[in-house]
Amino acid sequence: MSSEKYVGLDVHKATIVAAVHDEAGKCLMTSIIETKAETIRAFIKGLTGAVHITFEEGTHATWLFDLIKPLVCEVVVCNPRHNILLQSGNKSDKIDANKLAELLRTGMLKPVYHESHGTQSLKQLAQCYETLVSDNIRVMNRIKALYRGRGIDCSGRGVYRESQRKDWLAKLKEPGTNSRAQLLYTQLESIKKLRGQARKELLKESRRQPASKLLTRVPGLGSVRVALIVATVVTPHRFRTKRQLWTYVGLAVVTKSSAEYELVGGQVRRRIKQTATRGLNRNYNRRLKKVFKGAALVATRSEPFASYYRDLIQKGTSPEIARVNIARKLAAIVLALWKRGEEYDQQKLKKSA
């Protein structure tokens, strides 16, 4: 029997379909197991030899990674966007599991980073904080939609202030609409309280990470943004260069060209034409792009980035592209400081600029 096993898991809420392949790509077995820790452990322990396992990123990914990693040689949590092979031909749970096992055996999977390095609590708190921020925005939008739908001007933030609440409620004459607005205001106050509590817990956990002290002084990065960066990136050594981080953040420039060569006098010559630029890469981490774009907007209001921003504008760069350039610089600074374990020094930045 082969010493190498390649296992593809098609994971669902109640069951997991597991396909086991050998080194030659032969399917040794296909099993259906319950999505429970004890069942999964028993199945993996029953496999002999060096076991390599893969499954797609999803709801169960973090739990499965932590559960399976100590039991096997390799765990690859793969990016489902890159698994084009799964989209072709017939589709079923068993077919998907076998395709995953084959992609793992041939090394054609694109992995998703899943190491924690002691940041699991910070990750959970960051997710909780972001969810509450999103809920807060949704309720605020519902309140304004209620007034706008009745032709009542509600521009500004006065409609949310508790001191003006009676005046705003008085503008809603219909009993049902008035009751709905009161419930929305109650919901808003509850979420604000929970958001404040989540922010406090997030910052408390973030201060336990050595990187937080190093990065907080970087222009535009407050305590909350730093906490979100640390929770998402986990370790700077994931990225060998700043360009790899730019791609992950969504700040890498993607260019595309076609028909680059032509025949002139029987010889191949490169065409003289400009490469078509298509903009920034589309596959990126949404949280980090939001963090660095927000930090860039804040950094343009203080030195040394304020001068750099004005110089770009004077040279004809659009404000949007100028802020992207600043976001890229901030990402590069964060990566360099984090790797070296150094604190931010504005004088060094001025000299390098």
Descriptive report:
- With 353 residues, the chain is an alpha/beta fold.
- It folds into three domains: 4-105, YqgF/RNase H-like domain (Nucleotidyltransferase, domain 5, 2-Layer Sandwich), CATH 3.30.420; 120-208; 216-252 and 283-352, no CATH class.
- Helices cover 50% and strands 15% of the residues.
- It has 13 helices and nine strands.
- It has helices spanning 37-45, 61-68, 93-105, 120-148, 165-170, 175-206, 210-215, 223-233, 242-249, 286-299, 305-314, 319-340, 346-352, and strands at residues 4-11, 15-21, 27-34, 50-56, 74-78, 253-256, 261-264, 267-270, 276-280.
- Helix 9 packs across helix 12 and helix 11 runs antiparallel to helix 12.
- The longest helix has 32 residues, at 175-206.
- The radius of gyration is 26 Å and the shape is globular.
Which key features would you list for this structure?
353 residues; alpha/beta; Nucleotidyltransferase, domain 5; 3 domains; five-stranded mixed β-sheet; two-stranded antiparallel sheet; 13 helices; globular
